[in-house]
């Protein structure tokens, strides 16, 4: 299974890397990979939420016997493990594939960051839907955009951290690219 994931990650990386050259001057390859894989997982999240909310739950409360969940929160709870797994696999095998951390450590750290984002999502959706009477799907999209930024920096600096100097090196490369493009050099 691991070989299949590694091979799939390489194939996806090749496709993303092929699309990267026009963006070389404005962002690093890793940030571009994160943007593409994160966007794909985010759209998957939105579609999954919409399908669960509208077609699985049919906009009805979910009775669990000991607790009743509103349909918008139940859809959130159902999609979480699926999106957690898809996001982790994309980040581990495509975006941050050079991290030497043990996979279990990465999964634990990814889950911690994911749970923080889940709390933000829960309270954000509750606020937007129950407090401001916005529709659930657009509320999910708004909150997802907020958590994307929190997630990137958390994954880069904590979950898949490769060294203490990685962030500094990326900043230096970006600065050099910026200087080079200012002088008209490719």
Short description:
The chain is an all-alpha fold. The chain has helices at residues 2-19, 29-56, 71-95, 103-131, 136-159, 166-182, and strands spanning 62-63, 68-69.
Structure summary, number of beta strands: 2
Most strands sheet:
2 strands, antiparallel
Helix content range of the residues, please? over 70%
Query: Order of strands in the sheet with the most strands?
Result: 1-2
| Average of pLDDT | 87
- Please tell me how large the radius of gyration is: 19 Å
- Number of helix segments? 6
Low-confidence stretches: none
Give me the secondary-structure category: mainly alpha
| Topology as a string of helices (H) and strands (E) | HHEEHHHH
**What coarse outline follows from CA principal-axis ratios?**
elongated
Number of separate structural domains: 1
Q: What portion of residues belong to β-strands?
A: under 5%
Task: Give the terminus-to-terminus CA distance.
Answer: 41 Å
Give the arrangement of secondary structure elements.
Elements: H1 2-19, H2 29-56, E1 62-63, E2 68-69, H3 71-95, H4 103-131, H5 136-159, H6 166-182
Antiparallel strand pairs: 1-2
Helix pairs in contact: 1-3, 2-3, 2-5, 3-4, 4-5
Account of the protein in words:
There is one protein chain. The model has no long low-confidence stretch (mean pLDDT 87). The protein contains 6 helices and 2 strands. A hairpin with a 4-residue loop joins strand 1 and strand 2. The radius of gyration is 19 Å and the shape is elongated. It is 76% helix and 2% strand. With 186 residues, it is mainly α. It has one domain (2-9, 33-175). The protein has a two-stranded antiparallel ribbon.
């Amino acid at each position: 299974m691991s070989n299949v994931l590694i091979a799939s990650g390489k194939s996806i990386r090749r496709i993303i890397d092929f699309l990267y050259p026009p963006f070389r001057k404005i962002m690093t390859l890793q940030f571009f990979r994160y943007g593409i894989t994160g966007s794909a997982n985010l759209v998957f999240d939105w579609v999954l939420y919409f399908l669960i909310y509208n077609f699985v739950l049919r906009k009805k409360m979910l009775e669990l016997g000991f607790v009743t969940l509103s349909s918008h929160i139940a859809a959130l709870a159902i999609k979480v493990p699926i999106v957690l797994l898809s996001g982790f696999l994309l980040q581990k095998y495509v975006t941050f594939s050079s991290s030497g951390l043990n996979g279990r450590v990465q999964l634990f750290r990814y889950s911690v960051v994911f749970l923080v984002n889940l709390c933000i999502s829960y309270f954000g959706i509750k606020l937007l839907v129950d407090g401001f009477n916005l529709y659930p799907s657009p509320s999910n999209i708004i909150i997802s955009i907020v958590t994307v930024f929190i997630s990137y920096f958390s994954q880069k600096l904590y979950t898949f951290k490769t060294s203490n100097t990685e962030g500094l090196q990326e900043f230096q490369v970006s600065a050099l690219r910026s200087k080079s493009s200012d002088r008209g050099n490719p």
